[in-house]
Amino acid sequence: MRSSITLFISMFTTLLAIINPLEAIPVFLGLMKGKDSAEQNRVARKSCFYALLLAFFFLLFGTLLLRLFGVSLSMIRVVGGIILTRIGFQMFSPSPQAKASAGSGSGADLRRGQQLTFPSDACGVQAEGAPNF
Predict the structure, then answer these.
(1) pLDDT level of residue 15 (50, 70, 90 thresholds)
(2) Distance CA 113, CA 102 (A)
(3) In whole angstroms, what is the distance from residue 39 CA to residue 54 CA?
């Protein structure tokens, strides 16, 4: 019983981190802009239903599909780790559009963006050797 609770908590936190509902909410609201509340609820329910069907499909047939294509679970773990690491690095590196706009902006714009990115710097805490803008 204890191992199944541990497994559930582990899987729940992993799925929560991957799905990231706090990031999905603004996307959903942006897509549903101008729609009434009933339409938003209908689309949300339908999306959750399809996600649940997809999860149950892979719960039932995932192992069969992996065996069919000759893929081991350890390969999935390694590739999943690589993908999540790449996503993490992309979150910390600026996009090409941000680099272009930072090059044309003033120092005040850079300082304002830095304060949003690094809250400790906004409080006056600065690492030794860090540039002072």
Answers:
(1) confident
(2) 9
(3) 22
The reply to whether 22 falls in a domain is yes
What average pLDDT does the segment 106-123 reach? 46
Give the Cα separation of 92 and 72 in Å (integer).
31
Contacts of 110 (CB under 8 A, 6+ apart): 102, 133
Six token digits for residue 124: 């006056």
Is 129 part of a structural domain of the chain? no
The token duo for 117 is 């990115």
Global pTM exceeds 0.85:
no
Determine the Cα–Cα distance for residues 109 and 98; give it in Å rounded to an integer: 12
The tokens describing 33, both together, are 């802009």
pLDDT of residue 105: 53
Higher-confidence residue of 45 and 120: namely 45
For the segment 83-108, the average pLDDT, to the nearest whole number, is 74
Structural domain includes residue 126: no
Is 131 part of any domain? no
Domain range for residue 65?
Answer: 2-119
